[in-house]
Amino acid sequence: MDAVTQKAMIKKSNLKSAGTKVPRGSKQWPPAKSVTSKRNQSSEIRSTKLMLKVKPIIPPNFVENLFKQTRFTKKEIVGLCKLFKKLVAIYGAESTSSVAAMSSVVLITIPTQGFDRLMFREFLQNEFGITTEEILTDRIFCFFDQRNDGVIHEDEWITGLSVLLKGTQDERIKYTFTIYDLNNDGFITKEEIFSLLRNCLVKHPQDEDPDEGVRELVDIVLRKMDCDNDTKLSFEDFSTSVNKQSLLLEAFGQCLPSREISESFLNSISSVQ
After folding, report:
1. Mean per-residue pLDDT pooled into runs of 10, the chain (273 residues)
2. DSSP H helix total and E strand total for the chain
3. φ/ψ (deg, to 5) at 188
4. Contact (Cβ atoms closer than 8 angstroms) between residue 273 and residue 2
């Protein structure tokens, strides 16, 4: 099993049950809920293992189209296609187990068409170390979900990863600007900067005025990045500032994997079976 799949599988809980001693001559039946739960768990494990063993059929034209649209090699695209199926099975099983544990409804079907929001958030945290606030992970999800149907499909996943892992400076600047432009109006406003920084920085709301420091930081950021002094950041403002000082690329929160994690992920693709 490849390194990335092993890493994801470790996140799954070990399903163990302790036996109960029964007095001789008596017969004790386990509660119906317990039996149902064990059957559901077994079904999920069998489904996940079966999906991990299935070798996906990858149409040549699918690889060719993605090769033209992304910065991945054809070999990397094939590896990503295989990895996509495995990760969706793993995170899908975890998501199904979590929902079933909180509901009286029995859920056996594991989603296979792609990543939903919860699964994708887990993927970002476990594989890329992106443990940012929900407001940003949702924006990253929307960037990947080009069809806007609430699911990240295989081609969308690979296209999005091309920017995160192999994007040029201009592509990464456009990506981060899109993430920070919360209302998609083409500007990062003072209010949006405040919202982003507050979510990242304010951890103790019981302080006397936790927002005061954030407001001061917003003013500092605008003085540094607002080239035309209109109290908001256009793409030109943002791009010019980042090209002058690269650390400003993720000024309002983490939305990219580190270089080391990116290289490790790319190296692991070739070992996917």
Report:
1. 63 44 46 47 49 62 96 96 94 59 42 85 95 92 96 97 97 98 96 92 65 92 95 97 96 95 93 81
2. 12, 2
3. -100, 105
4. yes
Contact 181, 187 (CB under 8 A): yes
**Helix, strand, coil in percent for the chain, rounding step 5:** 60, 5, 35
Cα dihedral 139, 143, 145, 148 sign: positive
Q: How far is CA 83 from each of CA 175, 185, 204, rounded to the nearest angstrom?
A: 24, 35, 39
Amino acid 14: pLDDT = 43
| 94-133 pLDDT per residue, tens | 654 444 444 444 443 444 589 999 999 999 999 999 988 8
Q: Which two tokens stand for residue 258?
A: 């580190």
Contact 236, 223 (CB under 8 A): no
How far is 111 from 96, CA to CA, in rounded Å?
8
Distance CA(216)–CA(133), nearest Å, equals: 21
Cα 183 versus chain centre, distance: 20
Question: What is the distance of C-alpha 136 from the center of its chain?
Answer: 10
Task: Characterize the bridge pairing of strands 232-234 and 187-189.
Answer: antiparallel
Among 50, 84, 79, smallest CA distance to 67 is for 79
- Residue 200's identity, in one-letter code, is C
Measured CA to CA in angstroms, residue 230 lies from 72, 191, 219, 226 at distances of 39, 13, 12, 7
Q: Determine how many CB atoms are found less than 10 A away from the CB of residue 56.
A: 13
Q: Which of 252, 246, 222 is closest to 234 using CA atoms?
A: 222
**pTM across the whole model:** 0.75
